[in-house]
Amino acid sequence: MKTEQVGDGILETWTVDEVAEAFDKNEIVLVDVRTPQEFMFEHVEGALLMPLAFFKAEKLPGQSDKRIVFHCGSGVRSERVARAALDAGFGRVAHMEGGFGAWKGAKKPYIGTNMATGAPHLVS
C-alpha cells in the first residue's frame, strides 16, 4: 500500500491483492464509482455503487467498523473521489490502484454479463 499526505488526511493506494484479501475478510467496504451502466455490465460481487457523478462525501458512513476503499475502471475516478472525501474531512481514505481493469487482469472473480442471454454470471 502506498500512502500520500494530503492536507490533514492520508490517501492510501491499495493493490488489487490487498483489496481482494481485505474484502474476502470483510474488513472493508468496496465502493464502485463507475457509472450505473458500467456496474450493470460487470462488477465486483458485493461492491456498492456510488457513481462519481452523484458522489457526496457527506453521505458516506464513518469508517469505525470497516474501511472504505473506492474503485473505478482504471483508478483515475476513484482517486478523484478519494481526494474529494479527504477534502470533506475524512482523515484516511483508500482507493484501488488500476481499478476494475487491474482486478480483471489479476483474474479476481467478478459478476459479468452473459452476452448470449444478457443474464449476470460469475466470472472467475
Any overview of this molecule?
This protein is an alpha/beta fold. It has a single domain, classed as Rhodanese-like domain (Oxidized Rhodanese, domain 1), CATH 3.40.250. It has 4 helices and 8 strands; from the N terminus they run ββαβαββαβαββ. Strands 1-2-6-5-3-4 form a 6-stranded mixed β-sheet. A two-stranded antiparallel sheet has the order 7-8. The longest helix has 12 residues. The chain is globular.
Name the features:
two-stranded antiparallel sheet, GlpE_sulfurtransferase, Rhodanese-related sulfurtransferase, alpha/beta, globular, 29% strand, 124 residues, Rhodanese-like_dom_sf
Question: Could you give a quick summary of the protein structure above?
Answer:
With 124 residues, this protein is of the alpha/beta class. It is built from four helices and eight strands; from the N terminus they run ββαβαββαβαββ.
